[in-house]
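Good morning C.,

I know you're traveling, so I'll keep this short. The sequence:
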Amino acid sequence: MKKIIPLLLFIGGFYGFAHAQNNANYGSNAEAGRYANIRGFKMYYEQYGTGSPLLIIHGNGGDISNFKNQIPYFMKNYHVILADSRAQGKSVDTGDSLSYEQMTDDLNALLDTLHLDSCYVIGWSDGGINGLLLAMRHPDKVKKLAVTGANLWPDTTAVDPWIYKWAMDYNDSLRRAPKTAENKNELKLFHLLSYEPHISLAALHKIQCQTLVIGGDHDVIRPEHTMLIARNISKGQLWILPNSGHSTPVVYASEFNNTVDSFFKHRYRNITKMGRLY
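The tokens, ready to paste straight into the viewer:
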């Protein structure tokens, strides 16, 4: 069955032309890349630059190369760490199932392996979900968090109805397809994005770090759902990009990099009462 990854869109963060335009060999850099034995599999990761640690997490079916627009920018002032999540990119995993909690704990273990006690975090789509879970499950690891295109649950209150139906229909076609190793892995990823996550609003209240929640005004994640996430994090901030879909780090790379970098550098303002006038 022909791979559908180049469609660029949806809840899981498929990456489209970000992958095709990998000019700097990100994701296949022999000098920057290493493997770490993490929780039963070999996780591939790359590191760039020096400074405060910054973990960047890709979306469903993606890999390190998706952030070709972010790595050169952030490596000037940060120690940038990127990894291929379990069962994606170069991080092969032959297990039958996959969960966001599992991938989140993998990232926590990678940070432990690198002897990093805390870092800034950027997550796109599924990577945004992982970022939220990292701040909930391992709060000491996250200094500040920026997520774009993340969702809390898998239904049409969170996800555009057309995209939701497309993903569910594709799940059905994968289940009917021959059980090759490639199809088995793809089904595992599509099952994840179609039937998970299940994060309650109460769980979001556990996040204590300053968090920037980002989405496009025409994202596959409904803007009202993105706002719901921001409003249920005590130090949550909201940025909705106009005339934007799901690929905010690609289509609006310069604006994305500058805004997230500024967010990392500035303290949270508790804006209440008359302060709302300023």
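Safe travels,
E.
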